[in-house]
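User: Batch of two.

Assistant: Item 1 of 2:
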Amino acid sequence: MTRKELGRAIFETSYLTGTFLLRSGKISSEYFDKYLFESIPELLEEIVKQMLPIMPKNFDMIAGLEMGGIPIATLISHKTGKPCVFVRKKSKEYGTKKLAEGEDIQGKKLLIVEDVITSGGQVILSVTDLRQRGAIVNNAVCVIDRQLGGKETLAKNNIELVHLFTMNELKV
């Protein structure tokens, strides 16, 4: 599948119009229902296949953000042989009380994996928590950058974002 064909498939599968409240608090007339493209095995496989060449290479572990980053991170882990952790929005209050489920993250270089970036707010919150627990985080990768300031917000927090597609690329 070419990049253009993948973009078309993502768009046709998951692009919705209407009135949507985004995590950032903004109202949008368009929305990508990421679970629609993440839940189709062939599409998820192709997304990861095309993400691998553009991803930074200098990392120890993949960190999938709850919830949409987890399927992508899991498949990247499988393809690269690098371990992954699943990052909760908030540490659980029972059991191990972990924020990042999986191997120990202290001193490890993590690659953040997210599905869609809007403002970058959730990534910043998660990265702040991960850094407080001793992880080294300087890079993130996403499937779709909605181009609403997320990349710039992440850059201000020393996180370089690489995307597979921008919103504008998908709408062509």
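Item 2 of 2:
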Amino acid sequence: MTDSRPDAANNPFLRKLEGFEPLPEADRAALLKISENAQTIPARTDLVREGDPPAGVFLVMEGFACRYKQRGNGTRQIMAYLVPGDAGDVDAPLFKAMDHSICTLSACKVVRIATETARDLLQRPAVASALRKSTLVDEATLREWLLNVGRRTPVERLAHLICELHLRLRAVGRADENRFELPITQHDLADTTGQTAVLVNRSLRELRTQGLIELQQKHFVILDLPRLKQLAEFRPGYLHLGEQAAA
């Protein structure tokens, strides 16, 4: 494990929270201090497992992680992606056991915020408000994902997910206007969108055939964002990113 000390301009956690709420300088300094202690965690590592007691709050500074639930037969459903700037389960320490697992999908830089430190942060009104808004967005995103899995076609599901991730990553400075890195597998996408890896491959091929995206190793290149949004019926209001969503 190695240490990483992100500066303010490149700190995704600070950028995300300031997108929800203006933060006083003292709050910004406190968040930067917490973010200094990131550790590099290998891909495919469980940070917490369902049934375990909460071990503080995990903050993703770089890389991709996910929340998931797993059946007894080993199949899983990915419930959420944690991208840079996302914190997993700020309120989890209120309960005795986790009701889901959190796993790194790629190598990640992760900060573990101790329960006591998380409680101290919540005593800061602006930080508490920003974290509450972030939690509400997580809940809104889960509702959108339920619609995605339950009522959209396989191609529409992937198109919607690509639009969402592009916007979320742009908001924290981790995506360009039409390009972003997605360091996960087609099996991960299958577990996210409720379909097989074969269908995911077929759907990605269809999006390429329509001239909507290109795949360059681990990068997605969006060739026609308006048409991709139209196909997915992507309406970004649930992310509550304000002007960033309109960009």
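The chain has a mean pLDDT of 92.
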